[in-house]
Amino acid sequence: MGVSQTDVVLRALAEPRRREILTLLAHDEVPVGRLAEAFDVSRSAVSQHLRVLEDAGLVTRRAEGTRNFYRSRPEGLIGLRAYLDETWAASLDAARRIVEGEAGVLDADGTERDSRATA
Amino acid sequence: MGVSQTDVVLRALAEPRRREILTLLAHDEVPVGRLAEAFDVSRSAVSQHLRVLEDAGLVTRRAEGTRNFYRSRPEGLIGLRAYLDETWAASLDAARRIVEGEAGVLDADGTERDSRATA
DNA sequence: CCATACCGTCAGTCTTGACTAACGGTTAGC
DNA sequence: GCTAACCGTTAGTCAAGACTGACGGTATGG
């Protein structure tokens, strides 16, 4: 309960190799072995990355015989996009208030104070 | 040159405490000392987090006397949003092709192959 | 049944990074 | 000039995680 979905997705995307994997999985459904060949790392590393991506909901798995096909899962990005939109909106709102001269700048004792020119 | 802007922003946001800091800086302009009090960590830790956020372009600094006021910078999220939109679009496009029965599933030898129903 | 192909998991190594404590630098007040 | 307040930087510690190698498990071919 201590880790939010946004946190899991963000940590998964923060790794460059996982983003490369996601790029490959964006257009095609690819088995693990093929990914390992493409990236010049061990299958084990790729498998661990895929586990992280699957736990984050960014990828789906489909077993066919002994091969596991992975595919990108766009819905996994919904939560992150929502988070970014909120932060974006909040920051823009604050910036707008600052421009209008009613910014929320706090003084040392915590009381409100008038904003000064950007200098 | 090996690190893209998307990578820097993503790594900066992947840390929970930095997201908390960003949340506080979204509405108000806050000095470092106040952030340290709010989070029950040393000023040094907060200062280092702010450095990462500033390098990522997610925060701006304004010096006033000995105090440094930090503020959220919404434009820093533009690149990340563009990246997410691209990945989102690519994945959705692939999913659409799969539904329409013309998915790009590769066989063992790399040749194209017809997609099978979703399990 | 035996060999092979494909994959996930575990143990162990090594790098990255979050944190504290101590230090130095700058500004305001007396 | 001296002191105090505020902050960035550094060295050092410790935990998280990316990676390799070895192992075991399952499905296909002979």
Automatic annotation (TrEMBL), chains A, B:
<keyword id="KW-0238">DNA-binding</keyword>
<feature type="domain" description="HTH arsR-type">
    <location>
        <begin position="1"/>
        <end position="99"/>
    </location>
</feature>
<dbReference type="Pfam" id="PF01022">
    <property type="entry name" value="HTH_5"/>
</dbReference>
<keyword id="KW-0805">Transcription regulation</keyword>
<dbReference type="InterPro" id="IPR036388">
    <property type="entry name" value="WH-like_DNA-bd_sf"/>
</dbReference>
<dbReference type="InterPro" id="IPR001845">
    <property type="entry name" value="HTH_ArsR_DNA-bd_dom"/>
</dbReference>
<dbReference type="GO" id="GO:0003700">
    <property type="term" value="F:DNA-binding transcription factor activity"/>
</dbReference>
<dbReference type="InterPro" id="IPR036390">
    <property type="entry name" value="WH_DNA-bd_sf"/>
</dbReference>
<dbReference type="InterPro" id="IPR011991">
    <property type="entry name" value="ArsR-like_HTH"/>
</dbReference>
<keyword id="KW-0804">Transcription</keyword>
<dbReference type="InterPro" id="IPR051081">
    <property type="entry name" value="HTH_MetalResp_TranReg"/>
</dbReference>
<dbReference type="GO" id="GO:0003677">
    <property type="term" value="F:DNA binding"/>
</dbReference>
<protein>
    <submittedName>
        <fullName>Transcriptional regulator</fullName>
    </submittedName>
</protein>
